[in-house]
Specification:
alpha/beta, 2 domains
Length: about 375
Amino acid sequence: MTRTPVSRGSDSSASKYRIAIVHPSAGVNWSGGTENFAIEMARHLDRYFDVELLGGDAQIPHYYPAGGVPRNRARKLIQFPPLNRALRKISTNPDIVIEHLTSFFPCAARLLHHPADLIFPCNSYGGLAVAALVRQVLGTPVLYKAHNGLLSNGKPLRRDLKFRPDHLVVFSEEMRQFAHAVQPAQSVSIIPNGVDLQRFTPLGDRLDLALPGPIVLCVASLNRQGHKRVDLAIQAVSKLRDVSLLICGDGADREYYRSMGNRLIGPARFSIRTYPFDQMPMVYRSVDVFTLSSIQEPFGNVYTQAMASGLPVVTTDDALRQFIVAEAGILCDVTDASSYAENIKKALASDWTSKALASAKRFRWEIIAKRYRDLMLQMIHSCAKP
């Protein structure tokens, strides 16, 4: 089914078109990269389109309530042990399943009664299911970004491709080839994530973190069954004398990591906290080194945010991190705690500001948003009736 654009105006202007971005946890779960991506995308597409973000909190830009139970609130519902055990038999992330199920009908109702020219789901298969239903009824094209990369040997991407998005955005050529192996006819573009160099900068206000310096920062979701491997960062910093570790994030295993950090590093030099996204630039400016010891990281907005703030990055040595970090840090074998610790110490010994900023500029949002604008216009025009 083809569809006529919702709005009217000159074809030379994108402003007549309405873009719906979907992420029910945007604005309430600040430790997730996809939530923050949705917020930043809404901000930067605003100059080109009429944007609506179906999210979880009115404080975010272009907000419309997504409905349902966001994943961070769902975690509180599943703390009852018998319920938690039952749900984990269904999924390793029952909080996300609850979000998807409870937000499906509210999001679908909004998109059916207030049609958009393009739907951009950012919350994996939950948003894709909503978008696929609306496309079936109205013919609205669906743009999807594979935020999970090739985690779990590509299992999430293989699942998401079953929804047949009209266009898929990936981070690398490896991901493009994987997608074409699964769905040979899938339309694919490679676009990295963006970073706002006006927000994330070495200059500006800082926070008193009440931790003895120097301070190592790790920003990650806290789930032992995930790919972030926060325990490796804790083990490495525990080998460094007079160095503190601040973890910014939340998740089902927050207390597990708090206990580990207090035991190995000590509560005087270790803390787990959460901050709203708008405060994160101050957090980055208040520390000395950024680290994330994840495996199979799809992209990692936190790397570009840290570099834009002038920080060196110490992280896993793989092809994607070599591309993102470039000369702005040290890549190493993070599974070797002694080597990992020594490289953090090495990063602390030098000023990396100029190299970090140079690397971050390659991902500035002004460039990335224009690529999305051009792609979205192409999709909308190709879907419109002649």
